[in-house]
Structure formats: C-alpha cells, structure tokens
Amino acid sequence: MRMGLILVFYAINCITCAEAQPSKLIRIYSDLCIDKEEGDLVGHRLLILSLGAPYAIYQIGAGDTLTAPELAPISFERDKFSFSIHTQDISGNFTGMIAPSSVNGKFSSSSGITLQMRLLLQHDGDAVPLCQAGKGSPTKN
Questions:
Q1: Got the DSSP string for 41-90?
Q2: By CB count within 10 A, which of 16, 22, 78, 91 is most buried?
Q3: Measuring CA to CA, which residue among 29, 56, 30 is closest to residue 43?
Q4: Residue 141: its H or E element
Q5: Which secondary structure element, helix H or strand E, spans residue 4, and what is its range?
Q6: Neighbour count for residue 92 (Cβ, 10 Å)
Q7: Are the beta carbons of 91 and 85 closer than 8 angstroms?
Q8: Distance between CA atoms of 119 and 28, rounded to whole angstroms?
Q9: What is the pLDDT of residue 33?
C-alpha cells in the first residue's frame, strides 16, 4: 500500500519530468472531452508508468472532475497488455495494444458494460476538447 501511494505521488508530481526527459517514464493517453450541454468531463485517462515494473493509473470522467486515480500493475503478453482495477468507483479489466500515438483497447466492467476506446497520446499543454456527438456511450454485452 505504501509503495502504491509513493508511485501515485511520484506520477502526479512528475508530469513535468516526462516533458524534461523524453524517456517514456510516463505516458498519458486520453479520450477525455467536455460535454457541450452539461459541461461535464466524459471519457477516460490512462497513465502508463515505467518505474522498473510497468503500472497503470486509470481514471474516468465524473462530472466536473475525474475519479480517484487507481494504480494497477500491468501484464504484457506479446503486443497486448492488461490490468485489473477493483475499487469502490471502478471494477473491471482493461485489455489493449499500444500504438505509437494511441492505446486501442476495451474496458470490461464487472457489471457487464464493455467500453471500446482509442486513447490518444497526450502532450503537455493539450486542452481537453469539446465532445463530438455520441461520445462516451457504453455498450452492454
């Protein structure tokens, strides 16, 4: 638990380190957008940390903020990766593939909802765009 808190603290406070050191220490992928009518954050954010072992921090847009960051170890198998999150806010499994400028994958929640997503690599200073029509609609299995 203590190590998890240290990694979260490091990741949150070292976003500028990724800009200073293009070593792929932290990669941020996101499809977050702002709902035009409600002004709410919609979408997902995934941070992939390379701190000896790979970790993921996964968040979902929740109104005017994001869910609490959830830290999970990542498993790699050939060109795919996966991680599991089981907390009060989020519970399920993510599987995906990393491309040069995106992560393509799906999040399957324990409640039966599957979200297909393409998360784009974010750069320092990128603004959160307005949502396009149909954004963030989960599909039920």
A1: EESEEEEEEEESEEEEEEEEEEBTEEPPPEEEE-EEETTEEEEEEESSS-
A2: 91
A3: 30
A4: none
A5: helix 2-13
A6: 19
A7: yes
A8: 9
A9: 92
Domains of the chain by start residue, with CATH: 2-130 (2.40.128)
- The encoded tokens of residue 27 equal 């990669």
In the three-class reduction of DSSP (H, G, I as helix; E, B as strand; rest coil), residue 77 is classed as: strand
Of 42, 39, 44, the closest CA to residue 28 belongs to 44
Which secondary structure element, helix H or strand E, spans residue 67, and what is its range? none
Structure tokens at 16: 């500028």
- Token code pair at residue 15: 């976003």
SS3 6: helix
Residue with tokens 């909802």: 113
> pLDDT-derived band of residue 80, with 50, 70 and 90 as boundaries?
very high
First and final C-alpha spacing in the chain: 33
Quote the pLDDT of residue 125.
75
Q: How far is CA 31 from CA 72, 106, 117, in A?
A: 20, 13, 8
Nearest to 47 by CA among 75, 8, 3: 8
Q: What DSSP designation does 90 have?
A: -
